[in-house]
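Morning. Coffee machine broken again, so started the prediction first thing and wrote up yesterday's gels while waiting. Chain of 85 residues, entered below exactly as on the submission form.
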Amino acid sequence: MKQWEAHGIRFTPVLSEPLAEDHWQGKTGFVHQAVMKDYSDLSGYQVYACGGPVMVEAAYRDFTTLHGLPGEEFFSDSLTPVPKT
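Came back before lunch.
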């Protein structure tokens, strides 16, 4: 991750539901909400989101409608479970 920072990529770990025994001191909650707290204007950015369909859809909706991200600058892979056979 340190090498990424040298190229302008910022990495911020976010845990959705850390356990008390984890003693997590970092950010918590939904990743896209943590991004919105740190970046009020996303108009000059590109976003790549990967996760469950609900998370990807929420990120797209909130980034584009609330934080100025151009829709064409949002890229994603929505992970869907494979049906059990």
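The two ends are 39 Å apart (CA to CA). Going to sketch it on the whiteboard this afternoon.
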